[in-house]
Amino acid sequence: MMTHAEIANIVSKSRLFDQMSEEEILHLLECFEPRVTILSKGEFYAHERDEIDGIHLVLTGSLILFRETAEGERTVRDLLNPPDMFGEIAAFAVDRRWPVHVQAKEDATVINMPVNNIVGRCEKNCFYHNQLILNLLSILSAKAMGLHKQLGMMSLGSLREKIARLLVQRQKELGKERFKLKMNILDTADYLGVARPSFSRELAKMKRDGLIQSEGKEFWISDLESLELLAGE
């Protein structure tokens, strides 16, 4: 089992703990009394509609968030790696239930910090507790904007338009000429709600049309103006 010091070292890279030293994070961990869960590859951390009572961060490994229809069709919502945070929107909802399935894509470790311990009154009234709440509000705002972007992407008419927006947004997010997709091809296709062969074929067509190029897992945009026009950016 990880010590609080080991956990503090990992989560110090999370936006949730911006402007805090590892010593301050250690004090918060002692205050929050977090629960640590170790998962094997393929094991579920949570199922859709399960109750949720905290904010969660990935410490090791990776998790996939997805929804599944009654027919077994899967739609990927996100891929999480250390020290990504998840569940924070549902944790503050009236219903407080998971909106997705959460599954370990590989062996993983997750920390759960109960909501009541985070937003409850701090007896010490410490500055870094207040800072964490400010960080959380900033993250919730960014997540809301991210959901808005995803809805905008799904509303686009053609697969090419969806891919264009995905690539333009990813390049802007990373600020690099060459970049990798956040998820692999299969999971990215699920995220866009299309079959993998259709996604791969359209990528190949976009390369032939001189819009993008790729090498291995890296992509770069050859014709940014045309791609932004397709993306509606």
Concise summary:
The chain is of the alpha+beta class and 233 residues long. The chain has helices at residues 4-11, 22-32, 88-91, 115-119, 127-154, 159-174, 185-192, 196-208, 224-231; strands at 35-39, 44-46, 54-60, 63-68, 74-80, 85-86, 101-104, 108-114, 178-180, 212-215, 218-221.
Count, helices: 9
Low-confidence stretches: none
Distance between the termini: 46 Å
Total domain modules: 2
Order of helices and strands: HHEEEEEEHEEHHHEHHEEH
User: What is the CATH homology-level superfamily of the largest domain?
Assistant: Jelly Rolls
What does this entry look like structurally?
This protein is an alpha+beta fold and 233 residues long. The protein has two domains: 4-144, Jelly Rolls (Sandwich), CATH 2.60.120.10; 156-231, Arc Repressor Mutant, subunit A. It is 43% helix and 22% strand. It has nine helices and eleven strands. Strands 1-8-3-6 form a four-stranded antiparallel β-sheet. It has a four-stranded antiparallel β-sheet with strand order 2-7-4-5. Strands 9-11-10 form a three-stranded antiparallel β-sheet. It is globular. The termini are far apart. The model has no long low-confidence stretch (mean pLDDT 90).
